[in-house]
C-alpha cells in the first residue's frame, strides 16, 4: 500500500463502503487521467482528482468547474485516493465517511502543459497547468495554491484558449454521469 494512501484507508471501512480498496498498478505508456466526481454528501460538491505518481491527488471544489476563464473556483485539498477510485460511482452508506452518492461527472486523459516540469513538482510548487481531454471539459486548466498549511486553499480555473466558453455552464446543463448516464437523483440512498 502506498504511504500516500494511508489517510484514505484509515477513513474507510471496507466491509461497509463499496468504495475501491485496491491498489491498481497502471499499465506503462498510457496517458495519466483526471476525474471529476459529483458527490452529494452533507454538502454537494465536486471532487477533482488528478493522477500524479500513481495516486489521485484530490481537491473538493464546492461549486464545480467553469469553462469561463474569469471564474475562479475554490478548491480545497483532500486525501490522496487510489487510482481505481476514478471508476467509482455509487452509494456510500449512512454512517460511513462521505456518506451519499457519487457519480463520474467527467473523466479522460490529461497532459502536463509545462514542458520542463514534472507534475509532482508542479503540485509541490502549487502551480499546475494541464490540458484536459474530457467529455465535458476540454483545454487548458490551472490549479494555483493560494494558502498553505492547515487552511491550504487552491483556485481551479479555465485557462484562456480556444476551448474557453463564457456561455457554457456544464455543472448546470450537463448533470449526467459520463459513464452511466445517471444523475445523482437516480441513485437510491
Ligand atoms: Mn467528496
Give the fraction of residues assigned to helices: under 10%
Q: Quick one: overall form?
A: globular
Biggest sheet details: 8 strands, antiparallel, barrel
Coarse structural class: mainly beta
Side-by-side strand order of the widest sheet: 1-2-3-4-9-8-7-6
Percent strand? 35-45%
Number of strands: 9
Output mean pLDDT. Answer: 94
What's the topology here?
Layout: H1 6-10, E1 33-40, E2 44-52, E3 55-61, E4 73-82, E5 90-92, E6 100-112, H2 119-125, E7 127-133, E8 138-147, E9 153-158, H3 170-173
Antiparallel strand pairs: 1-2, 1-6, 2-3, 3-4, 4-9, 5-6, 6-7, 7-8, 8-9
Bound molecules: manganese (II) ion (MN).
Residues 39, 41, 45, 47, 60, 98 line the site of manganese (II) ion.
Please give a structural write-up:
The chain is globular, with a radius of gyration of 16 Å. The longest helix is centred in the middle third of the chain and has 7 residues, at about 120-125. It has an 8-stranded antiparallel β-barrel with strand order 1-2-3-4-9-8-7-6. The mean pLDDT is about 95. The two termini are about 30 Å apart. Strand 2 (about 45-50) and strand 3 form a beta hairpin. It is built from 3 helices and 9 strands. The chain has about 190 residues and is mainly β. Helices cover about 10% and strands about 40% of the residues.
Amino acid at each position: 500500500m502506498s504511504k500516500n494512501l494511508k489517510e484514505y484507508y484509515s477513513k474507510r471501512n471496507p466491509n461497509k463502503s463499496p468504495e475501491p480498496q485496491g491498489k491498481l498498478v497502471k499499465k506503462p505508456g498510457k496517458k495519466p487521467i483526471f476525474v471529476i466526481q459529483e458527490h452529494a454528501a452533507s454538502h454537494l460538491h465536486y471532487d477533482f482528482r488528478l493522477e500524479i505518481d500513481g495516486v489521485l491527488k484530490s481537491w473538493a471544489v464546492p461549486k464545480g468547474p467553469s469553462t469561463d476563464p474569469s471564474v475562479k473556483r475554490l478548491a480545497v485539498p483532500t486525501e490522496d485516493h487510489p487510482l481505481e477510485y476514478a471508476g467509482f460511482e455509487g452509494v456510500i452508506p449512512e454512517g460511513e465517511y462521505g456518506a451519499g452518492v457519487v457519480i463520474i461527472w467527467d473523466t479522460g486523459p490529461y497532459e502536463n502543459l509545462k514542458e520542463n516540469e514534472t507534475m509532482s513538482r508542479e503540485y509541490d510548487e502549487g502551480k499546475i497547468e494541464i490540458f484536459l481531454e474530457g467529455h465535458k471539459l476540454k483545454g487548458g486548466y490551472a490549479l494555483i495554491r493560494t494558502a498553505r498549511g492547515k487552511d491550504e486553499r487552491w483556485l481551479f480555473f479555465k485557462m484562456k484558449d480556444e476551448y474557453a466558453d463564457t456561455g457554457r455552464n456544464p455543472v448546470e446543463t450537463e448533470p449526467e454521469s459520463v459513464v452511466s448516464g445517471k444523475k445523482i437523483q437516480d441513485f437510491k440512498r
